[in-house]
Amino acid sequence: MSQEGLFPDSAAAGQLKSDVKEKRSRVSRVGVVVTGVLGGSLVALYAVAAPFLAPALRKVCLPFVPATTAQVENVLGSLRARSGTLVDIGSGDGRIVIAAAKHGFQASGFELNPWLVWYSRYKAMREGVHRSTSFHISDLWKVSFAQYSNVVIFGVPQMMDQLELKLASELPSTAKVVACRFPFPTWVPEHTAGEGIDTVWVYDAKTFKSHLQHRMTTPDSHT
């Protein structure tokens, strides 16, 4: 008779210990896998969210809010008699730049969020306008817009007064500026198009540059 037959309880106990060790090993492996997946997910979430959150930590936040179809149409309609170079400041997912390229512009977009820039490049490639578009990961305050004859901006009120001075000092007198959602505080628009959130304000550089020059040369009446 075998030892298992002589000591059945001992054999059963040994098998039980073996099963317990195997279950513990399985649990340990599952735990490692779950921890790895969770950690990877958190890293991926941070990688995706960080570019969206980073602009909010800056002095002036330019959030990504996709342009509506009506806004795109109003922008292009306001520039229908124009040509040449165009820049979209805060280009988001690239829809303004791509639409402008389809209408004959050599269009560029500047955007802080790298994910949106990469998506814009992919979208331009897919739409067949990659040769007439360019997208750049850059802070608008660190870029000169002197080379552009058409400017589109989806701004926020907190930045518009600063942007007035920047564009007035950099743009050529032949340029046009189209502001979406919010107008510039002191510039007088040449005309407007659309209504509500789809309203766009069109400004002539010759007018606002002369206005800036007048402000700089006129003494303050309070001094």
Overview in brief:
The protein has 223 residues and is α/β, with parallel strands linked by helices.
Task: Note the topology.
Elements lengths: L2 H4 L1 H46 L15 H10 L6 E5 L5 H8 L3 E6 L2 H14 L5 E5 L12 E5 L2 H14 L5 E5 L10 E3 L6 E5 H13 L6
Parallel strand pairs: 1-2, 1-4, 2-3, 4-5
Antiparallel strand pairs: 5-7, 6-7
3D architecture notes:
28% of the residues are buried. Helix content is 49%, strand content 15%. The longest helix is centred in the first third of the chain and has 46 residues, at 8-53. The chain is an alpha/beta fold. Helix 4 links the parallel strand 1 and strand 2. Residues 42-59 have low confidence and may be disordered. It is built from seven helices and seven strands, in the order H-H-H-E-H-E-H-E-E-H-E-E-E-H. The protein has a seven-stranded mixed sheet with strand order 3-2-1-4-5-7-6.
